[in-house]
Structures are given as structure tokens and as C-alpha cells.
Design a protein that fits this description.
globular; Rossmann fold; alpha/beta; eight-stranded mixed beta sheet; 2 domains
């Protein structure tokens, strides 16, 4: 079976310093292990580090059964910008042109496209429809709805009209899809609503999942020494955040909670914030002078292994109103950490159903402080830590989730062939 993956935004094998793969990288590996051929269409522009990998369309074979096809798209420096919208629009057109020139014998048996990018998913769906190839759309974020969070509610009708082209592309991709999958139940309901149909046997939920990660004892020891030199203290109750410092994350509230703890003399807690991004300077400035906040910058696998060993809890501090189920939850679960979560929706349902975290009100430092006090009660932390690791092993390990996804893809292709014959 030949599978086209159409996805942008994940680390690629050609990127420097890549230590772990995300959803599509792990699915691609699983497909190749099962003897399938994978062609992964993506962008020359690296969204995470805002750099061009190549300056023209480029094909690279990175492993047996896995080929990367980079489509040239112009750069952008800000995530919310006209330049990024132009990048997405041109990327959709670049895929349509490149796919149209594919010889008949190289056409895939199935196309697996992720949402976002809306234009790219729509182009993939149109191509699949034109060539009688089944198309799966995987919903990761609620684009373009997500942009409505950036404007006051009173302006939502105007903003929707301004994004009318994007909504048309959204509906096109979902209406033409042979199967819709999503990372959470509410995301699937959202997709089916835009597709204008009820759920069928080809629609399903596959949560995000996290792989087991490894490093040598020497690497972990070196990472521990480096983190200690930055001020990380393993004799404190570490509340740890790891991820990108972007507009969808709220570190203001944890920093204000840290300030309140410091002012009240509660020295047993330390906030360790790992990552970087557009808000790095702003949050470092806000935390300046606080003895219980440490910024580590970007960290590697050995640092992650050490921090999840010594941390007291993981922090998932999303902006109020932003609904997602991010990788962070499952990264913390893999380390057996209880989770402090700032949003409602599917993410809250997951931590509550598994008894592995406490939700607080996003933007409210007192609410986070209350959650910290709840976790500090006798036996609560040990129980939630055990539940967290158990939930990961039973439901959210990459081996389990992405193995099921591969079987889903195989079944959909078999079903499509049967219908066609």
C-alpha cells in the first residue's frame, strides 16, 4: 500500500537536533514497518524555527519506505500574520500542482491529510476525489475557529466573514473526506458538523499519544548537572512546564502564583519553565527577581527524562477559552506526573476521568494556588501520579494509539477497494 501523508508543522528527519518524533512521524514509521510505502508532503519552511529548509521543491528519502517531499512556500516571522496566511495559500497551490504532475503508477492508495493546514487539506481532498483515492482528514486544531479567540466576541461575525475563503476550504476538505478522525470527541463533532453529516464507521477519535523516550545514564547525568547549574533544585516541589512560549499558552498566571508563594515564604515550591518562543522575553521579565522560577530554554530528551523524574507536577497552562488536547498532557502522563490544567473541554474530561490531575481557572493565580494546595494534601499526589502513568500505559502510549491508526488506514483502504469493485 502506498500512503501519502500531507502534513506541516512537525519536526522532520532532515532538521538539525531532532530527538523525538510527533504524531505523523510515528505513524509514518509504523506504516513503513508494516511494509507500506510512505510519501510525506510537507513545507520547505520550518514553522517551529522560522527557517527555510530548502529554497525550492526538494525530495529526500530518509528511511526504507519513507520519502519526504518538500514543497517551497515563502517564509513568515509571526504566527499571526498576513505572511503566514499567504504561506498557507501558496502551499495549497504548490501541492495541487505537484500532485497533478504525479505519474499514474505513483499515485497513492490513500491520502492522510492533517488539519490544519486548511488549504493543504482541501487541496488533498480535491485531488483524492478527482482520482478516486480515499482521503482521511485528521483534525488537530479547530482552524480557522481558533483565530476568533484573538478578537472580541462582538467582532466574531465580522471576523468570520473576513475568513470566508478559509471556511469554504474547511467545508470542502471535510465534505470530500472518506473518513474524518480527530484527537478528541468534540473535535470530531466539530468536523462532522462542518461536513454536514452524521458519524459513520469511517469516522473515529485517535487521541494524541506519546512515545517512550530513552537516553543513556551518562546523558541523563550530564543533563541533571546542566539543569542544576541553571538553578533547578531537586529538593523542591517542582511544577514543570515544557513546550512553546506562544500566544495560546498562559505563563503569566503561574508566574503570579510563584510570586504569591515567594511573598508568603513558602519556599518548598519551584516553577521550572522549559522552552522558548515569541513570549520568552516578556515572561522572563515578569519573573525577574523571583527565587522560585527557573527558565531552562529548550531542552533535549535527557533533560526531559530527568525533569519528569524529579518534578512534583506537570503544568498545562493554556489561555482561557482555548480548547485543545495538547501533547503536554500525555508527556506528563508518560512521566507519571499529576497535571495542573487551566482549561475545560476534552482535556479536562481526560484528567478527571483518569484521576490524574486538577483543573484550575485559567488566568486566576488564586485558583492555581488552590490546586497546588489540593495536590499537597496527604496521599493525593501519590495517587494521581500512579493514575497518570497507568492512563498513559492503557490509553495514550504511541505504540497503542498509532498502531490502531495504522490498522484504521489499512481497513479504510480495504473497504474502499471493496466498494469500488
Amino acid at each position: 500500500m502506498k500512503v501519502w501523508i500531507v502534513n506541516v508543522g512537525e519536526p522532520m528527519a532532515v532538521d538539525p537536533g531532532v530527538e523525538r518524533k510527533l504524531r505523523m512521524g510515528l505513524v509514518a514509521d509504523r506504516l513503513a514497518e508494516q511494509g507500506h510505502e510512505v510519501v510525506w508532503w510537507t513545507s520547505t519552511f520550518d514553522h517551529n524555527y522560522k527557517r527555510q529548509r530548502y529554497h525550492k521543491d526538494t525530495t529526500v528519502r530518509v528511511a526504507a519506505g519513507i520519502e519526504l517531499r518538500f514543497l517551497y512556500a515563502p517564509s513568515y516571522s509571526a504566527n499571526i500574520s498576513i505572511a503566514r496566511l499567504r504561506n498557507h495559500y501558496l502551499l495549497g497551490r504548490a501541492f495541487a500542482r505537484a500532485a497533478a504532475s504525479t505519474p499514474e503508477h505513483e499515485l497513492p492508495d490513500v491520502i492522510f491529510a492533517t488539519m490544519p493546514i486548511v488549504e493543504l487539506a482541501a487541496a488533498a481532498a480535491r485531488f483524492g476525489k478527482a482520482h478516486d483515492i480515499p482521503v482521511i482528514i485528521d483534525i488537530r486544531d479547530l482552524h480557522p475557529d481558533i483565530y476568533l479567540n484573538l478578537v472580541p466576541k462582538a467582532l466574531h461575525p465580522l471576523a468570520r466573514r473576513a475568513m470566508d475563503r478559509l471556511y469554504r476550504e474547511l467545508r470542502t476538505s471535510l465534505k470530500l473526506a472518506s473518513g474524518i478522525i480527530a484527537i478528541a470527541p468534540s473535535f470530531l463533532r466539530w468536523g462532522l458538523q462542518h461536513a454536514g453529516r452524521t458519524q459513520s464507521e469511517t469516522d473515529s477519535v485517535f487521541p494524541l499519544a506519546y512515545p517512550e523516550i530513552e537516553a543513556s545514564a551518562a546523558e541523563v547525568e550530564a543533563a541533571a548537572k546542566e539543569l542544576k547549574s541553571l538553578g533547578v533544585r531537586d529538593d523542591r516541589r517542582i511544577i514543570w512546564y515544557v513546550g512553546t512560549f506562544n500566544r495560546w499558552i498562559d505563563l503569566n498566571t503561574p508566574i503570579e502564583a510563584a510570586r504569591a508563594l515567594a511573598q508568603s515564604g513558602r519556599e518548598e515550591y519551584q516553577f521550572v519553565l522549559s522552552g522558548s518562543g515569541d513570549f520568552d522575553e516578556q515572561w522572563r521579565r515578569l519573573a525577574r527577581g523571583l527565587p522560585n522560577v527557573v527558565f531552562t530554554g529548550w531542552i533535549g530528551v535527557p533533560h526531559i527524562i530527568h525533569l519528569r523524574t524529579i518534578s512534583w507536577a506537570g503544568l498545562a497552562p493554556y489561555r482561557p477559552g482555548f480548547l485543545t488536547v495538547g501533547n503536554k498532557l500525555f508527556e506528563y502522563m508518560a512521566g507519571g506526573l499529576p497535571i495542573f490544567l487551566s482549561i475545560a473541554g476534552d482535556a479536562k474530561a481526560i484528567i478527571e476521568a483518569n484521576g490524574c490531575g486538577i483543573a484550575y481557572s485559567g488566568g486566576n493565580a488564586d485558583s492555581l494556588l488552590s490546586a497546588i494546595d489540593q495536590l499537597a494534601e496527604p496521599d493525593v499526589r501519590s495517587r494521581m501520579a500512579s493514575n497518570s502513568r497507568n492512563a498513559f500505559e492503557e490509553h495514550y502510549s504511541a505504540n497503542h494509539v498509532y498502531g490502531e491508526m495504522v490498522r484504521y488506514i489499512e481497513h479504510l483502504v480495504t473497504r474502499s477497494v471493496g466498494v469500488a469493485s
